[in-house]
Amino acid sequence: MYIADLHIHSRFSRATSRDGDLPHLDWWARRKGIALVGTGDFTHPAWRAELREQLLPAEEGLYRLRDDLRLPDAPAGVAPRFLITGEISCIYKRDGRTRKVHNLILLPSLEAADELSAKLEAIGNIRSDGRPILGLDSRDLLELTLDTCPDAEFIPAHIWTPHFALFGAFSGFDTMEACFADLTGHIHAVETGLSSDPPMNWRVSALDGLTLVSHSDAHSPSKLGREADVLDTGLNYPELVEAIRTGAGFSGTIEFFPEEGKYHLDGHRNCGVCLTPAETAALGGVCPVCGKKLTIGVEHRVEELADRPAGFRPKGAKPFECLAPLPEVLAASTGASPTGKATMALYEQLLRELGPEFAILREVPIEDIASAAGPCAAEGIRRLRAGQVERRAGFDGEYGVISLLTPGEIARFSGQLSLFGAEPPRQKAAKRQLKKPGPAEVTAAPSASAETLNAHQLEAITSDAPVTVVTAGPGTGKTRTLTERIAWLVEERGVKPGEITAVTFTNQAADEMRERLEARLGGRRAVSAMTIGTFHAICRKLLGNVRVISPGDALTIAGEVLRSAGEKGGARELLQAVSRVKCGLEDGGPDPALYGAYQARLRELGALDFDDLLTEALKLDTTGQRRFRHLLVDEFQDVNAVQYQLVRAWSRAGLDLFVIGDPDQSIYGFRGADSRCFHRLKEEAADVKEIRLTDNYRSAPAVLETALAVIRQNPGGDRVLIPHRAAGPAVRRVQAADSFTEAVFIAKEIGRMTGGVDMLDAQALDHERTARSFSDIAVLCRTHRQLELIEKCLRHDDIPCVISGREDFLEDPAVRGLLAFLRSLLVPSDAAALETALRLLWDCPADLIRKTRGLCETADVLDPAALRDAVRGHGTLEAWLDRAEEWLPKVRSEKPRQLIGDWEARYGASPALDRLGHTAVFHQDFDSLWNALVLGQEADLRRAAGERWASGAVRLMTFHGAKGLEFPAVFLAGLDKGSLPLESRSHPADPEEERRIFFVGLTRAREELILTAGPEPSPFLSDLPAAVVRQQTGRRREPEQLSLF
Fold first, then answer.
1. Using CA atoms, how far apart are residues 754 and 437, in angstroms rounded to an integer?
2. CA of 611: how far to CAs of 548, 579, 833, 934, in Å?
3. Which end of the chain is less packed: N or C, by CB atoms within 10 Å?
4. How far apart are CA 84 and CA 479, in angstroms?
């Protein structure tokens, strides 16, 4: 039989003791008599490093502290064992509500912790807090955990805590199935928390069959064992987990008195109001002092979900015993303070003379306690064991208090020898019972099909004109109109799916359109024959088996071209200039000789770059191709000259062309987009039907009023957008003293919007508004650089965030070299990848690069043995082949994240390689990673994104990256002079395009819009309407003038 406390925190968690290290945990576990302790916080990399350094393997799945690290005065005996554990805070949106649920994870090894942490770090920030906050659905966290480590055990933590728990009153669920859905069967246990005990949980039949576990959730080693499990199994991970899953060998729990928990009853701590559930119901849930919402306690929440009467005990229920920490028991027995010198001296004396704390509280004879500590302490412990305890319940974050002896009893026991016959404590008054409301009348929610299309949308969808041009402002339903148009063609016109091509501007938009059509038309089979994708994806399909170089390889080629020509300048700048030529721009191109040399190198390598996909596809004759009979183009305002020509070429022999977009959202002038493309098409095409969509279903009236006031400053006459969303908060313009003050304001405001990220924050906010989830919020800036300080402030406040479209790390030489090397192992005939790897990793001379390319140009599979004789005597190539022989089996068998981790361990880590690893974590093989990096656009690449486990973090992105997205709450930050319009020495600002960029940012907001700027705001802010609320935050400290008098 042994005692286990599996839910604790280290010093790397927020609001914890600095003594939360392994030596102190070992020391306190010995003093308490705890045989097995969870490590807590396995996700924190610094804590994991300490665990690896300071722990030694013990029994299977368990560890012990190194002998040389044991504190000098630690009690003798068997060393406590450590189990790898951690708690994760999930804050996310489900069923229209923000959910905040904490979950405990038990793992069989440090290696499993490394692998799971790597996946979690790709989702959110796990470095700033030992208990990380992730915008991840609990169900998806469970799936991710089990996929990574099937032997892991996943336990919902302190399930009744009001703010952060499975059944929490403010942000939890009413059933286990509502939280974990199809994976509910993988939950075998729940942690009941300090404010409830087993009898309270027995009243909820949904918990039958689950093991009720109890742990301390200690934030200080001295708090270990406030609650714990009692087990009768072998001391090893497999038997422990089997006991938790089946109950066999799980002997029961040691509990806090639930009234001692700080959320037992309802109340308002600031007002000193503590209420029973019935009293709260009588007051309508409102504080009688301040009139604000009361914090609903655990007892109230149990009453709401209970389907059994108080006192019910299910068959097979495990025994439990209620105890209190020994210092509290001594204080309640002697009238002293729990932390006073006299109490602590007596506590230390008892440990020295009688043994560990749990033995004293549970087993040591009362006579021995009386001899060591006196009659009052002995009587107090006797009453504790008998349950004769007076309790004052905790509420709204304030711990409850127990009482064992009254002052008169203390005086009497201090003056007599007999330990028995004292008056028992007064009985508690009978509780008023909460009267449950009857079952609510269920009203069926309207189905999605009840949504109607407006007259202008219907006109566009059913247009039979050869060319239909739809001008659609933000939020007017472009995507739905386009999707319904395709469905109308199939269902009403009898068009075959294989005759339809829909062009989008991002892979993400293409995937979304395909999913909508599958849902609309009855599954994948109905849509599979359609061509849906970006211009580049469709062109690649038309061109067949072509090789496209990666951005990293393109940089290598550009650098080589510059060196060969003896030219100064950057490879990135040359590529940008080449791209301008290929996109049809007349200015800003490179020197013709450099352009020619770059193209010649591509031809030599038998490869195309990203822009070549379009120019080469334009040379094809697509006449007669069935796929283009019905061509639809989304975001038409963003096409450049080459893409416009592709649209005209593809539609020339087709039956109809349908384009939709908004000239006021044309924001890609730097890559050739021209908002006049609508006008050009109407001039060139015959029988054009033009339709305008003006009903806005996205944004609140105040948001639209602000956006229209800005865009009306551009030529084009008055714009009309008719709001159909209910009024929301006023738009705010906040002026900050400086960029740091601005970033701090944004972090604090997001904390307020989400209702706080921990229990203390949640209490302080008093729940006066509906909390948003992190995924409801976006922060947009003109440039990525402006986002860096905001990201730091959010991470400082433990707010999970992800910056989308940040791809700078792909240009790092270490990243480019690694990617090219791994690619060349799988596709040795990829000459560009092979050259990049040899040049960046081995600084290989040009003649040897040519030799190696010649050896590999026809190889489908790399055969190191066959190449050995050919490279002998060339040291650089021998080194390359040695490494290739070592890594070829790895790249074929290991997941990309493991490959990158192995590489860093062998050849050195870097921030860029770390970010590459975070991107790779959700790719199952290297080919998948390579294709994503080569063909992904800015809006498609997110370092923290994954198909199955998408993060619910706050989204940080540029105005360009936010195109096509929308969020309930949006911050537009860094709206400063010089940033908007963006001023650059190389390219003068285009005020009209910059105003369109601002307009796009403004119209991403559905309900709430906050504009922030420094002391020198953008001139565009002078266009804001008078209804925008002006605020200031922070004050710049002015220099003080010293007075001599």
1. 30
2. 10, 7, 18, 12
3. C
4. 47
pLDDT per residue as tens digits for the range 840-857: 999 999 899 989 988 998
Place of tokens 């610094």: 46
Token pair of 21, please? Answer: 């290290």
Record the tokens describing residue 26, joined without a space. 């070992």
CA nearest neighbour of 997 among 699, 745, 638, 723:
638
Within 13 Å of residue 493, how many CA atoms lie on the same side as its CB?
20
Neighbour-count burial for 82-119, b at 16+ CB within 10 Å, e otherwise: bbbbbbbbbbbbbeeebbbbbbbbbbbbbebbebbbbb
What is the pLDDT at residue 757?
61
Q: What is the DSSP letter of 394?
A: -
Q: What's the chain's average pLDDT?
A: 88
d(CA 87, CA 155): 9
Residue 997's alpha-carbon distances to 575, 960, 990, in angstroms, are: 24, 7, 11
pTM of the model: 0.74
Q: Rounded distance, CA 114 to CA 118, Å?
A: 6
Helices then strands, each counted (H, E), the chain: 39, 32
Q: Tokens 């710049």 belong to which residue?
A: 1036
What secondary structure letter does DSSP report for 687? Answer: S
Give the residue ranges of DSSP H helices in 269-325: 277-282, 298-305
**Mean per-residue pLDDT, 582-588:** 80
Q: Closest Cα to residue 263, out of 294, 231, 223?
A: 294
H-helix or E-strand containing 629?
A: none
| pLDDT value, residue 940 | 47
- The dihedral of CA 247, 252, 257, 261: what is its sign? negative
Tell whether the model's pLDDT for residue 422 goes beyond 60: no
Phi and psi at residue 82, to the nearest 5°: -115, 140
- For strands 2-5 and 228-231, give the pairing: antiparallel
Overall average pLDDT of the 226-255 stretch: 97
44 close to 56: Cβ distance less than 8 angstroms: no
State how far the Cα of 223 lies from the Cα of 936, in Å rounded to an integer.
50
In whole angstroms, give the CA distance from residue 496 to residue 529: 9
- Greatest mean pLDDT among 438-447, 587-596, 946-955 lies in 587-596
Who has greater pLDDT, 247 or 126? 247
Bridge partners of 882? none
Q: What is the pLDDT of residues 482-510, one digit of tens each?
A: 999 999 999 999 999 999 999 998 888 89
Distance CA 757, CA 735 (A): 25
Give CA–CA dist 103/157, Å, rounded.
Answer: 5
Report the C-alpha gap between 530 and 533 in whole angstroms.
10
Cis before 981 (ω within 30): yes
Cis peptide before 258 (omega within 30 of 0): no
